[in-house]
Amino acid sequence: MSTTITPASMPTVAIIGAGCSGITALKNCLAQDLSVVCFEANSDLGGNWIYNTEPSHSSVCETTHIISSKTLSAYLDYPMPEDYPDYPSHDQVLAYFRSYADHFGLREYIRFNTRVARAELQPDQSWELTLANGRVEQFNYLLTANGHHHEARHPAGISEAFTGRYLHSHDYKNNKAFADERVLVIGSGNSGCDCAVEISRVAKKVDISIRRPHYIIPKFFLGRPSDTFNKTLQYLPGWLARLGQKITLRIQVGRYAEYGLEEPTGPVTKNHPTLNSELLYKIRHGKVHPRRGVTNIDGNVVTFKDGSQGTYDTIVAATGYKITFPFFDKAVVS
Question: In what order do the strands lie in the sheet containing 141-144?
């Protein structure tokens, strides 16, 4: 015996965030005929893909391109346009998200400029949402898609000890303010490598501090995006796929020691990959200089783990983010 859900008894769903995850959650809830509302603090959808030159939400920087290819970055039911490049720019990615939302008729279900200040689990397992404007609303279910690039993780003690300019990569927008400066980038993830490469185009000197060895992977192999090539290896036994990854990377890069970098030893995909085709190029052209981890800062002089030192005007900390849910009580999610 089946039961038909009437509109009066239909479960209500709230979604926090209208970025890439929030809008597809919204689309799939609507496909199930659920009563759903998406709350977005910004004036438009797209999350951190909305570029803004001013300090604001966690927006991408001026020259950002995605690090996974369009083939493996697209929604399964809505491919990226055929004329997009292999690695679209941030404005193309944002246009794609907007097109997705318009194609599936999502905008009318999104409340823009509406921040959720508090989300509280009720005794009956429903959710009470308090909005920044003071309005309180009730929902049966809650989906959170608020992202994880909004609360910067700062390295301990550096901003206090360093007498030059200090900023987190969260606040980096473009390279204009770094002309003729001596710059140290701390961190060699995707943001750190991008910052080092872009700043090196205008700065007097750029060093990048890399605390531990890891793989820096070019974006292309044999004329194809590296991730699509890597996807073909998934059909091999695990040990053989890992060996294939190391061999192909050695063909592409050679030995990392040739670039002044420490040699990583674990599997290529053990940690989140850093995809960057320009950093190794910039190192070999003398535009970016690798350094070991920071051990001490005295004024504008930085000492590294191998005992070497450097003098800098600016430090850019590309040291990641804290995953936070500011609308939850810590008893719900710590």
Answer: 110-111, 35-39, 12-16, 141-144
Is the sign of the CA dihedral 145, 156, 56, 115 positive or negative? Answer: positive
Strands 224-225 and 220-221, sheet pairing: antiparallel
What one-letter code names the amino acid at 239?
A: W
Q: Measured on CA atoms in the order 80, 85, 86, 92, is the torsion positive or negative?
A: negative
Q: Which residues contact 307 (CB under 8 A, 6 or more apart)?
A: none
Give the phi and the psi of residue 238 in degrees, each rounded to 5.
-50, -45
Helices (H), the chain: 20-31, 70-73, 90-103, 158-161, 190-200, 226-232, 238-253, 279-284
Q: At what angle do helices 20-31 and 90-103 cross, to 10 degrees?
A: 10
Q: Which residues pair with 304 in a beta bridge?
A: 294
Where in 95-194 does DSSP place strands (E)?
Answer: 110-111, 116-121, 127-131, 136-139, 141-144, 151-152, 165-168, 182-186
Return the closest-CA partner of residue 14 out of 111, 125, 141: 141
Q: What's the rounded Cα separation, in Å, for the pair 318 and 324?
A: 18
Q: Nearest-CA neighbor of 174 among 308, 64, 16, 256?
A: 64
Distance CA(147)–CA(87), nearest Å, equals 21
The owner of tokens 């000890």 is: 161
Q: pLDDT tens, 280-327?
A: 999 999 999 999 999 999 999 999 999 999 999 999 999 999 989 999
- Predicted TM-score (pTM) of the model is 0.90
C-alpha 277: how far from chain center: 18
Q: What is the largest CA-CA distance in the chain?
A: 76
Give the alpha-carbon dihedral of 134, 136, 142, 143, to 10 degrees. -30
Evaluate whether 179 touches 68 at the Cβ level (below 8 Å).
no
Q: Is-contact 275 217, C-beta < 8 A? A: yes
| pLDDT of res. 255 | 94
pLDDT digits (tens, 9 = 90+) for 233-266: 777 888 888 888 888 889 889 999 999 999 998 8
Residue found under tokens 């690695």: 87
